[in-house]
Amino acid sequence: MKIGKIDLGDRPVGLAPMEDVTDRSFRLICREQGADMVYTEFVSAEALVRNIPSTIRKLSIDKNERPAAIQIYGREPEPMAEAARMAAQACPDFIDINFGCPVKKVAGKGAGAGLLRDIPKMLDITRAVVNAVDLPVTVKTRLGWDCNSKIIVQLAEQLQDCGIQALTVHGRTRSQMYTGEADWEEIARVKDNPRLHIPIIGNGDITTPEKALEAFDRYGVDGILVGRASIGAPWIFSDIQAAVHPDRNIPQIGIAEKFGLLKRQILESVSRIDEYRGILHIRRHLAASPIFKGIPSFRPTRIAMLQASTLDELLQILSQVQESLQAS
After folding, report:
1. Cα–Cα dist 122/77, whole Å
2. Which of 91, 101, 147, 162 does the annotation list as catalytic?
3. Is the CB of residue 232 less than 8 Å from the CB of residue 288?
4. Among 54, 55, 61, 126, which one has the highest count of C-beta atoms within 10 angstroms of its own C-beta?
5. Is the pLDDT reported for residue 328 higher than 80?
6. Would residue 162 show up in a list of annotated catalytic residues for this protein?
7. 220: alpha, beta or left, given left = phi > 0 and alpha = psi -120 to 50?
8. What are the pLDDT digits (tens) for 51-85?
9. Within 10 Å of residue 276's Cβ, how many Cβ atoms?
10. β-bridge pairing 94-99 and 68-73
11. How far apart are CA 4 and CA 66, in angstroms?
């Protein structure tokens, strides 16, 4: 699969953009674990053109995490075009437009998935961004606003006509948010459209290697993005790659390596921010990590882990859990 001149290989598996999750440290770890491409957190066009420092910091890309995309969102063509030009100065491999974020503070203000209720403006924004930069431009969106307006098949054609070079479809409507099941049959309808020649990337409920295989074998997408299932489990990419490419003999990592990755995330989070906020930032990963699933009588330890306020305390708890698991 290619995005512009960027060759991502056969059946690429990428890390989906997630606010407060896909920071540079996590992106790099996921790349090391087998993700073929990664996306930044959401970058607000309005905040970027106003030179908000915290937003500008999101543009930083490590050379070892490439191919990497900067994802921008906004509600007006001109600020989005200017934000794209600013993002291009950070030299990402491509720029992605967020037309899929369903949260109220984004969609409710007419950005992200909110633009599914204003397709003419969505297309104006897309054309403005495509014309503003020399980099490949891609789009990530949803099936439609609600179950009565699943417009993605026609919309995909319109976005392609604007000049985008790949389309990611999350198999839910905005109204669904993250509830229910992703509709991969609808994603397959997009892929089966003979008028489309750009790569179609599927997203939504890719939680296991088996579901990744189904996305490729049954629904025929060119690539997939893994989102929430990677939180606290960056090794899901090596698991999926082993299933999707059995001929590559990809080794699977053990308990010690998995704990090592979680500890690395903690240390890098603390180093990047500070001890208190760095620990707060990483709690989402610890709370979601499947590594603790099924441990007998784990609830008190889980509470202590998620309430730990110092680096030493948190690392000590993790080491004790690791030793217990390896001894059992």
Report:
1. 8
2. 101
3. yes
4. 126
5. no
6. no
7. left
8. 999 999 999 999 999 999 999 999 999 999 999 99
9. 12
10. parallel
11. 15
